[in-house]
Specification:
This protein has about 300 residues and is mainly α. It has a domain of about 210 residues: MetI-like (MetI-like fold, Orthogonal Bundle). Helix content is about 75%, strand content about 0%. Helix 1 packs antiparallel against helix 13, helix 10 packs antiparallel against helix 13 and helix 12 packs antiparallel against helix 13. The longest helix has about 35 residues.
């Protein structure tokens, strides 16, 4: 296993390099002059040129990237051009908030989604099955920002049960976590139902039932474990997507996380912060994929570390 983990980590290096190059290039093609935005609308041309020189914006793109990459290898992500604080400090303050929101949303999605999928599979075509799959379809189709606004209108404005935004108590976490996790809940429910239905048709499930095992044991001990691999695949991908996709949710609910920081930094042409935020999210996404692959091997011993193919 250790050799497999090392190989996966080495393969992640070119991925992260590619991400850094792509983000570096895209940000520089955003319309507008960052030096003028930083200096202010009333700044003189000489001061604007001074800012441009300090940020190396007057150098060719490849020179700017190599300077950025060299500093990055030393653990230096640069300084925010807006607040003049180190990017690592900005991310250190914001990332735990995004991680808390994402973990909570993923926990809600996993518990509700898997429970609904299992019950729907064991009670196929029942009223609960039809209702849960309809709700899952709505959850997948509804835009995140619209759900957030509807939750604010219902639970914060009309009912007054929960705060409409900000961060402080656990109550501030409820609405953004529900908003962020609802689409993932729907997806996990559909995948769990489909995977469970496939497993429940297998011969070994029929054999287990013929031995007199109670249905609960057949469902949770024999069927669920074998149905988990596609579910874990979706959960791993969705966790990474939630980390990087919390931008709208954090903006709607004024949640002080990395997503909102990225939006503010893009508007302010704060290149170092945007680059650092995207790179940190990419590292976590690659790490999550590695963890998911390792979990595969524990769930199904037939999977080999070297090829990840079923023998």
């Amino acid at each position: 296993m250790y050799g497999y983990i090392i190989r996966r980590l080495l393969l992640a290096v070119p991925v992260l390099i590619g991400v850094s190059i792509l983000v570096f290039a895209i940000i520089r093609f955003i319309p507008g002059d960052p030096a003028r935005a930083i200096a202010g609308v009333h700044a003189s041309e000489s001061y604007i040129e001074q800012v441009r020189s300090e940020l190396l914006l007057d150098e060719p793109l490849h020179v700017q990237y190599f300077v950025y990459a060299a500093n990055l290898l030393q653990g230096d992500m640069g300084r925010s051009t807006f607040t003049r604080r180190p990017v690592t400090v900005e991310l250190y303050e914001r990332f735990p908030n995004t991680l808390l929101l994402t973990v909570t949303a993923m926990g809600i999605a996993t518990v509700i989604g898997m429970s609904a999928g299992i019950v729907s599979a064991t009670k196929r075509y029942s009223l609960f099955d039809n209702f849960s799959m309809l709700a899952a379809l709505v959850g997948v189709a509804a835009p995140v920002f619209w759900l957030g606004l509807m939750f604010q209108l219902l639970f914060a404005v009309n009912l007054g049960w929960l705060p409409s935004g900000g961060m402080g108590t656990w109550q501030h976490l409820v609405l953004p976590a529900l908003t962020l996790g609802l689409a993932t809940t729907a997806l996990i429910a559909r995948i769990t139902r489909s995977s469970m239905l496939d497993v429940l048709r297998q011969d070994y499930i029929t054999t287990a039932r013929s031995k007199g095992l109670v249905e609960r044991v057949v469902t949770y001990k024999h069927a669920l474990k074998n149905a988990l691999i596609p579910v874990i695949t979706v959960m791993g991908m969705q966790f990474g997507i939630l980390l990087g996709g919390a931008v709208l949710t954090e903006t709607v609910f004024s949640w002080p996380g990395v997503g909102r920081l990225m939006v503010d930094s893009i508007l302010a042409r704060d290149y170092p912060v945007v680059q650092g935020a995207v790179l940190v999210l990419a590292v976590f996404f690659v790490t999550i994929n590695l963890v998911v692959d390792i979990i595969y091997a524990f769930l199904d011993p037939r999977i080999t570390y070297g090829t990840q193919e079923v023998k």
